[in-house]
């Protein structure tokens, strides 16, 4: 995590969009973009562009679950709690120290989990609420990620024709798919595809998020999304839309195009996408 100066610092270009879908009365998805250094944290708009030279960036999506409006509240808590440790982590990396990104992200997920458990146990209307969380932390040359649940993070490397799913779905159906016991089509249509084995909050006693790191450079694209997006769009179609956004000035918000396409094809669930391109 040593921060070495680059001759021509890369920039990030991002866009985000969410839709409640065709059948849900409210939206239980949340997304967040932050720009921060050791002193300040700024909340980002739905789309924009900024340099990585002096600040880090974090992007996250969360899908809440629970009775009444508890799921909506759960996902909002998950994304709003992300600011806790980030400024301190930036200071350590700027000084060339090694706090360990996995330790920082694991602690962050644990704190969010405990906050959800506390609120869920304090009010009858929020009892048992849970949330997924998929988070990307960008600094020059690297993207660190943390994940729990069935939201996803994809990586589309420069000039590649296929996306790579960086996260694993914390569901039994996801395990069956990873081990080749069912097909992608069967996983998408299985009646228990949304049954989570791991999430933040609820009755989960321990939190064990997936954490990892990916080297990244100009031309790389990252997609964070809730499971509603992948219900209505296949990987090859997402590649087409993401590549089109690189070549067309008219597609200033590729996340919106992805969400609108998915809702048109399916729309059974809340649908959220965050697209981050290194430029």
Description:
By secondary structure, the chain is of the alpha+beta class. The chain has a single domain (11-278), classed as Phosphatase 2c, domain 1 (4-Layer Sandwich). The protein is 30% helix and 28% strand. It is built from eight helices and 14 strands. The chain has helices at residues 70-80, 86-94, 101-122, 172-178, 184-189, 227-231, 235-247, 254-265; strands at 11-19, 29-36, 41-43, 47-51, 56-65, 130-131, 133-139, 142-148, 152-156, 164-165, 200-201, 210-215, 221-225, 271-278. Strands 2, 3, 5, 6, 7, 8, 11 and 12 form an eight-stranded antiparallel beta sheet that branches. A six-stranded antiparallel beta sheet has the order 4-1-14-13-9-10. Strand 2 and strand 3 form a beta hairpin. Helix 1 (70-80) runs antiparallel to helix 3. The longest helix is centred in the middle third of the chain and has 22 residues, at 101-122. The radius of gyration is 18 Å and the shape is globular.
The percent range for strand residues is 25-35%
Number of helices: 8
| Assigned CATH class | Alpha Beta
CATH architecture: 4-Layer Sandwich
Envelope shape? globular
Distance between the amino and carboxyl termini: 21 Å
Per DSSP E runs of 2 or more residues, the count of β-strands stands at 14
**What is the gyration radius calculated from CA atoms?**
18 Å
Helicity level, as a percent range?
25-40%
Run of helices and strands: EEEEEHHHEEEEEHHEEEHHHE
Global mean pLDDT: 89
What is the CATH H-level superfamily? PPM-type phosphatase domain
Q: Low-confidence spans: pLDDT under 50, at least 5 residues?
A: none
């Amino acid at each position: 995590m040593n921060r070495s100066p680059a001759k021509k610092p890369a920039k990030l270009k991002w866009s985000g969009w969410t839709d409640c879908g065709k059948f849900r009365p409210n939206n239980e998805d949340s997304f967040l973009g932050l720009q921060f250094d050791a002193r300040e944290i700024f909340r980002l708009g739905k789309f924009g562009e900024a340099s990585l030279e002096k600040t880090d960036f974090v992007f996250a999506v969360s899908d809440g679950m629970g009775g009444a409006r508890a799921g909506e509240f759960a996902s909002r808590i998950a994304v709003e709690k992300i600011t806790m440790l980030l400024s301190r982590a930036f200071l350590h990396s700027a000084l060339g120290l090694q706090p360990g990104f996995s330790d920082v992200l694991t602690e962050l997920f644990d704190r969010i989990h405990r906050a959800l458990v506390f609120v869920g146990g304090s009010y009858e209307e929020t009892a048992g609420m849970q949330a997924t969380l998929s988070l990307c932390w960008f600094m020059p040359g690297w993207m660190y990620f943390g994940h729990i649940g069935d939201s996803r993070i994809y990586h589309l490397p420069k000039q590649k024709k296929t996306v790579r799913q960086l996260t694993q779905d914390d569901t039994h159906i996801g395990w069956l798919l990873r081990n080749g016991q069912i097909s992608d089509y069967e996983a998408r249509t299985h009646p228990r595809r949304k049954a989570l084995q791991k999430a933040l909050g609820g009755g989960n006693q321990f939190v064990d998020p997936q954490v990892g790191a990916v080297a990244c450079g100009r031309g790389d694209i990252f997609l964070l999304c809730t499971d509603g997006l992948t219900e209505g769009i296949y990987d090859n179609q997402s590649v087409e839309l993401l590549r089109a956004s690189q070549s067309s000035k008219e597609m200033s918000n590729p996340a919106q195009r992805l969400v609108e396409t998915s809702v048109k094809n399916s729309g059974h669930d809340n649908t959220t996408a965050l697209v981050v391109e290194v430029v």
